[in-house]
Amino acid sequence: ICAIAHVTAKTMPHKDAECRKGSGPNIHDPATRELSVIVPSYNEEKRLPLMMDEALDYLEKRQKQDPSFTYEVIVVNDGSKDQTAKVAKEYCKKYGSDKVRVISLEKNRGKGGAVRTGVFCSRGEKILMADADGATKFADIEKVEEGLKNLRPWPKGMAISCGSRAHLEKDSIAKRSYFRTLLMYGFHFLVWFLCVKEIRDTQCGFKLLTREAALQTFSNLHIERW
């Protein structure tokens, strides 16, 4: 499997709404915000408002407590067929385009492509991936921030802190059928056996990266989709 993946791997296309040098904010430029929040969104017009309300309420309160704290939220509309872009742009009007930006991809490219586009257009010293479904409480960013802090010193400025819902696994199993539970364990085993052994919940969409780590990680992605 690894050999086939290596042979067939292709560089992700730099097109669509991909940010280039000189065309606007770019990951290669020095950071001008403390935090960038990347929200990949595909047909999320119903769930996005709940997540955005929670996130922006937290971020605004944090900024009032500490005026030096700066942030931006980048919603990447991944070729949605519903009103996701319209919903997201309402937050631009409410909070200003300096705090909330919407990037729309003409065609659906998958979560990998959407997150990568947002990262490459970000201005943050730290970059957070956050799912539009609000599956993780946004205030839990403080936990991943603490995790990132505990990794110091960062080699070459690179560090990644991963959120985890592994401690909620028993509750989720109780709500699943035996077949889905079997599939879950099978998938977790394959991920553990073939890829990552140190991280229990690789699928949690709540990850915090330093700017340099984001640049290195997303510059080397080969797969755009989930």
From TrEMBL:
<keyword id="KW-1133">Transmembrane helix</keyword>
<dbReference type="GO" id="GO:0005789">
    <property type="term" value="C:endoplasmic reticulum membrane"/>
</dbReference>
<protein>
    <recommendedName>
        <fullName>dolichyl-phosphate beta-glucosyltransferase</fullName>
        <ecNumber>2.4.1.117</ecNumber>
    </recommendedName>
</protein>
<keyword id="KW-0256">Endoplasmic reticulum</keyword>
<keyword id="KW-0808">Transferase</keyword>
<comment type="pathway">
    <text>Protein modification; protein glycosylation.</text>
</comment>
<keyword id="KW-0735">Signal-anchor</keyword>
<dbReference type="InterPro" id="IPR035518">
    <property type="entry name" value="DPG_synthase"/>
</dbReference>
<dbReference type="GO" id="GO:0004581">
    <property type="term" value="F:dolichyl-phosphate beta-glucosyltransferase activity"/>
</dbReference>
<keyword id="KW-0328">Glycosyltransferase</keyword>
<dbReference type="InterPro" id="IPR001173">
    <property type="entry name" value="Glyco_trans_2-like"/>
</dbReference>
<keyword id="KW-0472">Membrane</keyword>
<dbReference type="InterPro" id="IPR029044">
    <property type="entry name" value="Nucleotide-diphossugar_trans"/>
</dbReference>
<comment type="similarity">
    <text>Belongs to the glycosyltransferase 2 family.</text>
</comment>
<feature type="domain" description="Glycosyltransferase 2-like">
    <location>
        <begin position="36"/>
        <end position="213"/>
    </location>
</feature>
<dbReference type="Pfam" id="PF00535">
    <property type="entry name" value="Glycos_transf_2"/>
</dbReference>
<keyword id="KW-0812">Transmembrane</keyword>
<dbReference type="GO" id="GO:0006487">
    <property type="term" value="P:protein N-linked glycosylation"/>
</dbReference>
